[in-house]
Amino acid sequence: MEKMSRVTTALSSSAISGRTMFCHLDAPANAISVCRDATQVVVAGRNIFKIYALEEEQFVEKLNLRVGRKPSLNLSCADVMWHQMEENLLATAATNGAVVTWNLGKPSRNKQDQLFTEHKRTVNKVCFHPTEVYMLLSGSQDGFMKCFDLRKKESVSTFSGQSESVRDVQFSMKDYFTFAASFENGNVQLWDIRRPDRYERMFTAHTGPVFCCDWHPDDRGWLATGGRDKMVKVWDMTTNRAKEIYCVQTIASVARVKWRPERKFHLATCSMMVDHNIYVWDVRRPFIPFATFEEHKDVTTGIVWRHQHEPHFLLSGSKDSTLYQHMFKDATRPVDKANPEGLCFGLFGDLAFAAKESLISGDANRKPYPGGDRRYPIFFFKKPDPTEQFAHVSSALSVFETDLDSNRMDWFVRTAQLYLLGGKPFAELCDHNAEVARELKRPQVSTTWTMLRIMFSDPANIATSGPNHLSKLGTLPLMNSFNLKEIGSGIGNESRLERNKGDIRQDNVHLEPENISNNNEENEETEGSEGQAEYMFGDAELDDDDLYSMEHDNQTEEQECTLPQEAFQLRHDILDNPSAPEHLQQDKADSPHVSGNEAEVTCLTPIESFSLISISQPLFTPDLPASFFCPIVREMLSYYAEKGDVQMAVSALIVLGERIRKEIDDLTQEHWYTSYIDLLQRFELWNVSNEVIKLSTCGAITCLNQTSTTLHINCSNCKRPMNSRGWICDRCHQCASVCAVCHHVVKGLFVWCQGCSHGGHLEHIINWLKSSPHCPAGCGHLCIPPSRRAAPSLATPDSAGPPLPRSADADHKQGRAVNPKKKSGQRESQRDERAVRLHEVLT
Amino acid sequence: MDAQDQETLGRWDGLASRDTSSRTAAMEHIRQEVLSKVEAIGPEPTSSPSPSPSPCLSPASGSPARSDLNAVLAHLLMLTKRCPFEDVRERCVRLLQTVQDLGVRIPRPLGNGPSRFIPEKEILQVSKVDTRTQSIFEDAFAALGRLDNISLVMGFHPQYLESFLRTQHYLLQMDGPLSLHYRHYIGIMAAARHQCSYLVNLHVNDFLQVGGDPKWLNGLDGAPRKLQQLGELNKILAHRPWLLTKEHIEGLLKAEEHSWSLAELIHAVVLLTHYHSLASFTFGCGIMPEIHCDGGHTFRPPSVGHYCVCDIANGNNHHDSPFGSQEVCGGEVEVLMERMKQLQECRDDEEASQEEMATRFEREKTESMLVVTAEDEEWVPSRDISRHFEDPSYGYKDFSRRGEHVPTFRVQDYSWEDHGYSLVNRLYPDVGQMLDEKFQMAYNLTYNTMATHKDVDTSMLRRAIWNYIHCMFGIRYDDYDYGEINQLLDRSFKIYIKTMVCSPEKTTKRMYESFWRQFQHSEKVHVNLLLMEARMQAELLYALRAITRYMT
To answer: Could you tell me the pTM of the whole model?
Structure first.
């Protein structure tokens, strides 16, 4: 230690300076080493062995040690080390197994001093003792380590690792007698130099070879190891068992590791393959390098800190035949480029968001929340460490939970099933659909249907069927993605609970000009008042429970009341995405007999509200031609489609049929249809999707039904394709489709369970399954899983109950029973093309 | 026949189950099916013993139904010999007997045992193996529905076999960048390069089974453009891997819509090298065609007068056991051991000069040129293999020809352990690890025996073999004294090695017998494993180095 301090003083007298610079070498470098006073560097490789002086502005070649007419393999260096005590002494490890020492003080051109050829295989590493002048250690591919006394002609002791290939040997900084050796099989051994018979300690550090190790310079008993498994590990060797205290995962195998001087937690690494950069890591921050040097064009083979007390200069040699001096101030700091924001959806729709603390704190709306409760954002702060030079980044993590119910798509499924798209007069269809929407608490959609009816029906009909249907519209939000448990989490995601006077009265019988103008004004008023009406949810005056209860209250009230109501409006926008459609929600709580002729519409999002009424206002006459509304309806449909409710767009399109079809270009229609069909199929609503396909007027869509109408069937016995008839196999002459109930051949509709592949006559199976959930074939398969058993009957067209008869019917008519998405995954047992998919019922 | 094999394959699946009852059920199913087929065809007039013109290869080429049945019977025959489950073997024997009793001609295996070179009695019997090998066999059988001859021969070294099968299974059947039929097709391409009909047949069947397009099998022209481009790489890798440059790699990776991704390329390269070296092993051990494949069985009754080529080529009729010529070269093993001992002791004393060492490598390289491989004498392609590759004249050319100087590959600059492994593992996860284990297994495998001697350290010999093969590919170890090779490997052995590694299709039984006469067959198989792995590593090193160069 005395010597160390002397070195320090030496340093202070002649401080190192320099800049980032490089020089071309003639050949790829394998290793580099610096002399004690940091003024010269030696570069060694297969075809190079030179000493360069480190000057202020450049490298200057001082000496070429590779002399001789025909250089021998002894000069093909795998490693080189400059003695840290004796500045004229160097050692190299040759690929042919020789260990060579060099004395720069020799007067002759050839500076070779000693040659040891004791190793049988390539020597991977040489290492001088840090304080002892004549002690040299080598580690070789043959599994041996040898200690040489340079005053003698041969090694003084040989250490056998009892395993293959020593990859690195390093004398400890702490203990005079200890050295560490790393091996190709993943082990690290500690040896006492005085005891060549047996290692002191051994542990497995990595899977696969340990390419390098380095003792911490500040004699802390820390050993860093790097391996082919792409990890850098820091071990505490002071305890009884080597304990892994830090682990850094890099992106490529680690070829060299070197602790950074004067920085307790920093180390530099470089890789052997693929990755050419040099990284400096703070071992406490293993996820992102503290600094990166990206100058090299090929893999870096040697790195060394220029001076053992100077952390700002790093030297490196590379296969690209360059030697670099890197200044720390010129390093790239990956952390500056890293994206501090993160966003992730959970399995159940929860959303986690992490962002810079500074971004969040800028949002005045954020309120502190008690920790621990996981409904609230969790904040992680790192205590700023004065010694740490990491850019101070602290981010806040917010977790938004979604309520399972709110995210459900039940309404979609129900709507799809209940809507009537054809087969009845237009007005009835509209009324029916409006009713469906109303029951599902989708007032806006309901209103839309009603309006469509009004616009396109003969005015005479309106009065008769109109008023009954526009009433008591639910107050539930349409599609709230999140239930706003954590608001004000600081993403700038301001969530508001808006409380609006829901005095919405709309007259649907006679839209008289003044009412409409009224309406229009009202609209604007509401818009203006929106700000006043909003409450900050963050005040915590409303919990989600409150929310629920309030909704409940509303509903109950609604059902009995006849007076205008207050309704709660929920809105949740994501600020980052201002163009995202907002939910338009209309609250209506009005009963027809009270509302009379007044019409008031409250729109929370006026931009997207119905421009319909305002526009139509000056021109309206009772016998306005239906075509007059077309532009508006078109806009309306586009609006729904844009908003994501393609269901509405397509349903309305189908119901309106010729009335609107020409107004919308075919491509858009096709786009809507395909989106809707895709959605329906995702929800396994095959029948609805079929109906939509059938009713569509779009050529590209209707032809969907003409594709893949063939079903290939394999015989259940011999597993071969059945060609001619569906029920008997040509090859094995056996009947393939036998009813599991009556044991007769099924020639018509065949229904089967996709779980066990058994099936039979449609009627028989239906009857059977009414009495037993198990497979009629006796295979033991539970064809109706317990979850479905509760469903009352097979015949209800409910999502929970199987729409079997309809299914059979529809599929039969369409001749298209197989969902293309499922087809590939199914077993070979696709049968009759008219087969009915019990699947829809049973799974 | 292939198409039918493909269809009927489903029925064999059940036999691979480890569960006895499901095997029984599957067997029963097969039984009924076979019997119904037999009935459908009706008994054959057994009275006409006159064999059809080409009985050896096209069994009873009658109606399609008949050939279909024959295929099934051949498969059954294979099962009687190769199924690791005793119950299945027994039932198959009984079933065949039943069929024969019904008056239908049943096939018999051609040749004895899995190898032409090794007498059947020397090779492990499927019925008599220890539990470990048994379980390896069962696994292999479950994975492929067969236990091929290669596995049986490798059964001498179960540790290695396990590692080999695991790797092969992963390469062919597990997750990987290439689709299944591509993998088999690449296997076919690689094996065809060495005209290895055994592997080609095996993989043609597999290729069709996984739904490959039969049109591709008409030749590389029928295959997609992407695979055609691989032809060049295949050719170079198989014969002169040192000529591989990063331009080749670039050509594959940047070919517009037909280009390969890096991961796909690595997968393809591993497959190619695997099958090149496996072809070496196949020829080196004289692997016989599978019993159920073409050329593995015949429906012709055995008769004294008709000797089939295969029967003669199959050395089992000859009774000159490898020990027969023991006196002639008595003490061969002892001499070898003595030399090893000397080398061990003397190496420190007479340290050769550096120049000497350098020239020794050159000399070995040059001498390997002079080792002339014997001319082909009996190779008859049973399937037109040449259509799977182009440019048949392209073959191994000695590494160090005058005129075209290729720099020596220094293993210290690019080694499997340091560089190759990392690259493979990066682009095709887990495979690097498997290959690494396989290489190590092959390199380190030893029983410390040599012929009849025990407790011998064979590491020196193994290293000499390994390095000699790498030397033929121009790969040099700085730390190896190539003089050792001359001491340890005699001429006949060198001829064998060179033939097997460079042009395996020319390997003959005579070559196999003429080296290391006193050694056991298992030791010769061991040598073959070493040769195979060393060759694979050599090819891989060149390919991976080219890829690395492309990437940097």
So the answer is: 0.62
